[in-house]
Amino acid sequence: MARIVMKFGGTSVKDIGRIKNVALRVKAERDRGNEVAVVVSAMAGATNQLVAWCNEISPLHDPGEYDTVVATGEQVTIGLLAMALQEIGVPARSWCGWQIPVVTDGTHSKARIKTIDTPEMVERMEAGEVAVVAGFQGIGPGNRITTLGRGGSDTSAVAAALKADRCDIYTDVDGVYTTDPRIVPKAKKLDKITYEEMLELASVGAKVLQIRSVEMAMKHRVRVQVLSSLEDKPGTLVCDEDEIVEKELVSGIAYSRDEAKITLVRVPDRPGIAAAIFGPLAEAAINVDMIVQNVSDDGKSTDLTFTVGTADLARARKVVEDAKAVLGYEDLRADSDVVKVSVIGVGMRSHPGIAQKMFHTLASEGINILVISTSEIKISVLIEEKYTELALRALHTAYGLDAA
Amino acid sequence: MARIVMKFGGTSVKDIGRIKNVALRVKAERDRGNEVAVVVSAMAGATNQLVAWCNEISPLHDPGEYDTVVATGEQVTIGLLAMALQEIGVPARSWCGWQIPVVTDGTHSKARIKTIDTPEMVERMEAGEVAVVAGFQGIGPGNRITTLGRGGSDTSAVAAALKADRCDIYTDVDGVYTTDPRIVPKAKKLDKITYEEMLELASVGAKVLQIRSVEMAMKHRVRVQVLSSLEDKPGTLVCDEDEIVEKELVSGIAYSRDEAKITLVRVPDRPGIAAAIFGPLAEAAINVDMIVQNVSDDGKSTDLTFTVGTADLARARKVVEDAKAVLGYEDLRADSDVVKVSVIGVGMRSHPGIAQKMFHTLASEGINILVISTSEIKISVLIEEKYTELALRALHTAYGLDAA
Q: Least packed by Cβ within 10 Å: which of A42, B117, B184, B204?
């Protein structure tokens, strides 16, 4: 007997018919003699509606109240799925984040899980009851509801799977591809991918798994399978590098449109200026991704460019504008019509020339690179958003990833 | 400085614009120097959608899961209202039932409040923060979410007002009327009404206040005002009999379409038969209202008629049918096309002839009475639903309640 965590996203539970289908898949897993916990998202569209209401009330709303509102989406799904399971004879009960409890820090709207305490839940699972767990949510300091950020249900699933034998993430795609198949029809499905590569893919917007869920899976060596909620066939296994025999030089090409660029023109070039800019942003819990600093002509001031998530642009702008007197920059330019394109592969550690091929390919298509950043297994560039499709297709071909 | 509880129902918070209006009314009350707690329902329509999903999944769904699902409606509203208050400069935070906590028994979907423990909430109110409280919900045994039944937000408001100076219930009507003005245009608004009369009005479906809220207000002598959320004028005060100088013989005429009649034909007439029938119904938490038993011709069996809420009819029928072998009745007849009409007034204690006038008035309109029940200050009859309007208008005139 194995303990399995199954996770279904919003499109898999988007209406009552789909919820009943999920109940059948859970029953099948339980009928194989397994202990099952099932983690679910909100019904597709529900969270968007809730977020829209929050924004309509107040663009700079209290993230604690935001969490109280949006956490209801998952609460609805767990109740309905528990009923659907009971209806087909499977003992089940729902668990909100605060009931388990999933204890998080207090960073509302993007909280991090600190501990998961599940003695009662595990006891009931061992007695044959399916645990239906609300993804995306937890409980923070002061007994307040927290949420883990978009896609947080994946993290909930991996967290629930720390002592499980497998964590199956059911999605509307049938696995992880070399790039987005909607843009590049020749994209190929990968059978296996390393945690490290998946981490880069997730962080640059492949949208299959949330980045924190992969970090957590890597740290605790949880075997995660990404598979289709509609078809019954194997997906992509996210696992240790050792498990993958044939390694490709480049595994995939990812992109993220959820990027916005802020340039501070003529910032005084003095020690501590970077800390003065990025400290307040960090305090406001705004993630800064790429950072580039250029020395300007006079040697006394510098232009500084950084990127944040599109959703954080208004807040980031306000934080930096509020500090204008202290920072002393001349002008602020913001641009959200940009996209980050990344080439990823554990193979590039030992092979030079990967970056050169990327720059050459983009240049030959006439695409200007705005910002570059690199890591051990990734090269990312920021380009104008209108070039997204062209860049992806050209790079996919250049790295030999096109399906036969 | 007074402590005021304000309660707004679903239509008062049905969209973002209305929620912003509620925030302005709350701000006005706070600007008068008062400590304010505001209790809100789900946005109009939200609860119906949630209930519809539960019924679609499973007609005989687990009431514990039902509560988990429907309690989300109020949770959305409190988060949004807290944001709206903050947006206009009023410190506020939301409170779910389990956060306060509002401790209830375990009768899911119609739980009763046992205790309300609010030290932290009161402390924050005293520091100037508006408490935005989710109506309708609490926390029961095993850390499960409970709900108080339809209209339960009124009870939440009164419970929150036990130590408050006033409990203002804002509704889509401007007070309590002698009867439903939509049916009887000559209905009059009452300035004051006793707890006892309001209790009877509520219990027979005047729909202005939930019955338990009135019971609780009466027990703890909470002064409750029913007033319009749209207009700024006094409503109806529900208070002690002593406070009302001029008492009417009959204060109002109420009706309830939410009635269903079950008749058991030829039940053996033996001791304990009533307990055998109503015991299982009570165990299933089904409220039985009127009960009438007739001796039949042979003296060995009897016909027994009782009424339950329309929503409970299917479950009540199943409970009684499951016990058919034990009960030994011949036939079961169910009918939900009935209405209960009630004449209410504390004055009738000392005045005979009130009932006689009711029977006479209905007879002269050709309306047949199916079941009769009476209390000290109320006479109720069950009649065919099609006669509702005719009966109400005739009785309103007969008791001299028509507006000039």
A: B117
